[in-house]
Every structure is written in structure tokens, then in C-alpha cells.
Amino acid sequence: MLETPMLTTRQQEIWQFLAEYVDGHGYPPTVREIGDAVGLALPST
Predict the structure, then answer these.
(1) What is the reported pLDDT for 44?
(2) Where do the structural domains in the chain lie, given as residue ranges?
(3) CA-CA distance, 8 to 25, in Å (whole number)?
(4) Is the pLDDT of residue 26 over 70?
(5) C-alpha distances in angstroms, 36 versus 1, 4, 5, 22, 24?
(6) What integer pLDDT is reported at residue 32 of this predicted model?
(7) Is 15 in a helix, a strand, or coil?
(8) Minimal CA–CA distance to 34: which of 20, 14, 4?
(9) What pLDDT band is residue 4 in, cutting at 50, 70 and 90?
(10) Can you count the helices (H) and strands (E) in the chain?
(11) How confident is the model at residue 41 (pLDDT cuts 50, 70, 90)?
């Protein structure tokens, strides 16, 4: 996976989840799935 030094820790966590999810499923997760995976209470946070 590409290193992304310009991202915050939280952004890196989300990016990692996205990359792994797409690799495993072949399509991107929903906003709710992203939030659940990284501990966001609401999609707007």
C-alpha cells in the first residue's frame, strides 16, 4: 500500500479501512460502514 505521510492519524485509519475493504469486497463501503469501522458516531463527524 502507498505511504500517505500527509494524512492525519485519523485519516490514515480511514484510508487503511477503505483500502482493505475494497480489496476484500471489490466495491467501496458505505459511509455508515466507514463510521462503524473507525468509531465515528455520526457520518457528519
Answers:
(1) 65
(2) 9-38
(3) 25
(4) yes
(5) 23, 22, 24, 16, 17
(6) 92
(7) helix
(8) 14
(9) low
(10) 2, 0
(11) confident
Compute CA 18 distance to the chain's CA centroid, rounded to the nearest angstrom.
4
Cell reading at 8:
492525519
Whether residue 34 contacts residue 40, with contact meaning beta carbons closer than 8 Å, is answered with yes
CA distance 33 to 43: 9
Please check whether residue 38 is in contact with residue 14, taking contact to mean a CB–CB distance below 8 angstroms.
yes
Q: Which residue has the cell 492519524?
A: 9
Task: Please give the model's pTM, rounded to 2 decimal places.
Answer: 0.75
Q: Are 17 and 29 in contact (CB under 8 A)?
A: yes
